[in-house]
Design brief:
heterodimer; A: 353 residues; alpha/beta; Rossmann fold; 2 domains; 5-stranded parallel sheet; 10 helices; 36% helix; globular; B: 199 residues; Arc Repressor Mutant, subunit A; 6 helices; 5 strands; elongated; AmiR/NasT family two-component response regulator (chain B); AmiR_N (chain B); Sig_transdc_resp-reg_antiterm (chain B); CheY-like_superfamily (chain B)
Chain lengths: 353, 199
């Protein structure tokens, strides 16, 4: 007999990051279908709430799911800003958020599981790979909230430590399309690469304008000065069209590695499957606080101390409309506070031409 | 003064929580483990190894001076007060004990990381200022020796400002402070030395 367990989904189906929400939602729903059709003693019933991209609706809607609907587990949130908004609600209701999007680290909530990458799994290996390939002079962009700020602060630190230089750093409010100044500054400073931590329409506008700049001036083409990011996946390529060509992204998964369309889909799927594994055969376990749920089960993908997961690092470049993997590094545990030594780089010699 | 926050090297750092067994200790230990620190707790006395800890979290509600093997305010590591009752007397005691940052009880899901960084930054700043003040004090104490050295040198120089210039040159050549150069000149002339009241 299957136990019915309600599972909250808290994704914005409209607004500036709807494409990412949809990818996560697809992965979560695919896992729900799999669990329900499979040998688990569970039937997961999705209960959806849609904040519509409005930051102030996340906490009340999360509270509605936990306090009024009586749920204990929610898969959701895309921006770090929204995740930080719901944590007090989770704490109060002793609920758990399963978060399936790359983020900037420096968090390890007792009520959140982080199934996508943090900086030791995206930004740092990406920069280490880019320095010898392109150089150490960077231009940094970002949306005006914690993701862009912290990614760029970390990048600045890493670039400085490597003897490189940050030639410019500029932010836009979420949703803003005023990218002209960034493009002018890049044209003037001629960096070796651009680290792009803009999100949604700002990012699409910037990437299209930069692609156009590259068409008129070869110094700004992907072979000379590529745009790199840690949050670009297949789910946003349709919004970019031709402008996606040559973009470089770091992530734990790219289409073609398995059956998922993007790392967002894969991470949300992994979250729901892990939750099902933890609940399976344990009636009432859905009401346990996360720490206890993890402690009393055989070890799975979630590190009981940090609530992060171990993920491989793939560095890919868009070519012919799809990502092609250019570098593949073994799985490493998420290290949200960057307090553990990085794994040694594999000792492969490369031919420098 | 602009000062960056030192956020590296927390991995493997050791924190000691001076608090009676309580959910506060569990919640704080969870946060510190997630950050990557080693954690010990003790009560009512600090364990002898605590002297080499990198951070001390101490109970501001039940704490008292005799718990610490150092003078109030002279801890060799950053100290973070765990404050339950926000009574002026307890806050005053925490400050005298040398709190560099604080966390309010009950301890929840977060707060330890910022307390660690703020405490370390305040501790470093306090230590740098203390060293600077001690150095300035020492130099103030040596004013008389500098005057004596300039007077000695002026006997052979054109005037006092030339003598002072000469003293600076000597200090640079010997790679010592002006005060130290003055001391050497006065000592070599067998003149009186005012350093007896240094301390």
């Amino acid at each position: 007999m299957k136990r019915r367990i309600d599972l909250g989904l808290l994704y914005s189906r409209s607004g500036s990051y709807a494409l990412i929400s949809d990818a996560c939602r697809t992965g979560a729903l695919a896992a729900v279908a799999e669990v329900n059709a499979g040998a688990f003693d569970l039937e997961l019933v999705p209960v959806e709430r849609d904040p519509g991209g409005n930051i102030d609706l996340y906490a009340p809607l999360c509270e509605e799911l936990l306090a009024h609907e009586g749920l204990h587990h929610v898969v959701g949130c895309v921006t770090s800003w929204s995740r930080k908004e719901v944590i007090p609600t989770l704490e109060k209701a002793r609920g758990t958020l399963w978060y399936a999007v790359p983020y900037e680290g420096f968090e390890a909530s007792d009520h959140v599981v982080y199934t996508h990458a943090c900086p030791n799994q995206h930004l740092l290996p990406l920069l280490d790979w880019a320095f010898p390939a392109f150089g150490r002079r960077a231009y940094l962009t970002g949306s005006n909230y914690i993701w862009g700020w912290e990614m760029n602060r970390l990048a600045r630190e890493r670039i400085g430590a490597a003897g490189g230089k940050v030639l410019g750093e500029r932010y836009l409010p979420i949703g803003s399309l005023e990218i002209d100044r960034m493009i002018e500054e890049i044209r003037a400073t001629e960096p070796d690469f651009i680290l792009n931590s803009l999100i949604g329409p700002s990012s699409y506008a910037f990437l299209k304008a930069y692609h156009a700049l590259g068409r008129e001036d070869a110094r700004f083409r992907p072979d000379r000065c590529p745009v790199m990011s840690c949050n670009l996946t297949e789910c946003e390529l349709p919004a970019l069209g031709d402008a996606a060509e040559g973009l470089i992204a770091a992530g734990p998964y790219f289409r073609g590695e398995g059956r998922f369309g993007s790392s967002h889909e894969a991470a949300a799927h992994a979250a729901v499957m892990e939750l099902a594994r933890l609940l399976s055969g344990r009636p009432g376990a859905e009401r346990l606080p996360l720490s206890q749920l993890l402690a009393e089960a055989p070890p799975g993908i979630v590190d009981p101390q940090t609530h992060h997961t171990s993920l491989p690092v793939l560095i890919s470049q868009v070519s012919g409309g799809r990502f092609t993997v250019r570098e593949r590094l073994p799985a490493r545990p998420g290290d949200p506070y960057l307090t553990h030594p990085a794994p040694a780089r594999p000792a492969t010699l490369r031919i420098v031409s | 003064m602009k000062r960056g926050v030192r956020h590296q090297n927390l991995g493997g750092a050791r924190a000691v929580i001076l608090h009676r067994p309580h959910p506060v200790v569990q919640a704080l230990t969870r946060q510190l483990h997630a950050i990557g620190l080693e954690v010990g707790d003790c009560w009512p006395d600090l364990e002898p190894q605590a002297i080499s800890a990198d951070f001390i979290f101490f109970d501001a509600d039940m704490g008292h001076d005799a718990q610490f093997p150092w003078k109030p305010g002279e801890s060799p590591m950053p100290m973070i007060a765990l404050i339950g009752s926000e009574a002026p007397g307890r806050i005053e005691w925490s400050l005298q004990a040398g709190a560099h940052a604080q966390l309010l009880k009950p301890i929840g899901d977060s707060g330890a990381y910022s307390a660690l960084l703020i405490a370390r930054t305040a501790f470093d700043a306090h230590r740098a200022l203390s060293a600077e003040i001690a150095d300035l004090r020492r130099r103030l104490d040596q004013r008389q020796t500098v005057v004596q050295a300039v007077t000695l040198l002026a006997q052979r120089a054109k005037d006092e400002s030339a003598a002072y210039g000469q003293l600076r040159q000597m200090a640079m050549a010997w790679r010592v402070s002006i005060e130290e150069a003055a001391h050497r000149i006065v000592a070599s002339q067998g003149g009186p030395d005012d350093r007896r009241d240094r301390g």
